[in-house]
Amino acid sequence: MKNIINNHLKKIDKQEQKILNKKGKNKIQEKINPLVEKMESKVPEALKETLKFTFYKAFQLVFERGTKYIEKMYNKEKIQLDHNMKDFLINQKVNRKSIRAMDKHSKKSNVINASISTIEGAGLGLIGMGLPDIPLFTAMILKTIYEIALSYGFVYELHDEKIYVLRLIRGALTKGVIQSNHNALVDETAKYIDNHIKLDFDLNKEIEKTSEVLSEAMITSKFVQGIPVVGVVGSITNFVVIKKISKYSSIKYKKRYLNKKM
Prior knowledge:
Elements: H1 2-20, H2 27-40, H3 45-70, H4 76-92, H5 96-101, H6 104-126, H7 134-151, H8 159-173, H9 176-194, H10 203-225, H11 232-261
Helix pairs in contact: 1-11, 3-7, 3-10, 6-7, 6-11, 7-11, 8-9, 8-10, 8-11, 10-11
């Protein structure tokens, strides 16, 4: 059992390193890059601060009162039951097929969530709304991570898990050395949580750090999205951000799950 799991962990490490060492741009980014570069120079500092603060308040709102509304968008009990059944099969006979089966729900939900965020961004972009959709987009980011967490048998309501979720977002959206540092922090956080060592960190400070990273990733698209019709470009960024977060989160939660099996 340990040999099979160890082989899967090695594959996950390769997938992780591919993300961390990625230097090029994907096809979507290449198409919108000229417009992005042009718009970046025109983004007012006041808008940058406003965007950061709006993400900050959105995270606070969702963490304090919004989780129950996010959970109405998926069947929590069904996902947990599905995980328990697949986990039971792995315990009975671990092989490539049984481990891959664990990925099924997370992959399906990732595609759906990315598509919804694209449509949502395009719809608001067409009527010239950039900032009002941030709470909706923040909820969609958390919905994506929550479904992945559940599919691998993890909770997200606890204080320490909220910190882990916020650090996942930072690990997914940063680049280069900064991303490597965030990635190490994500692994360290997982190790503490899974070994039942309490994290002594301020949740609001973690929200602030994540809001800054997320606002930097979204700033140009939100500025563009505030312009009627042209704002449709902003929806592409919604898709890219959700895809990055979902891919990275899937790798990290699966890694946690397999490490616990070891």
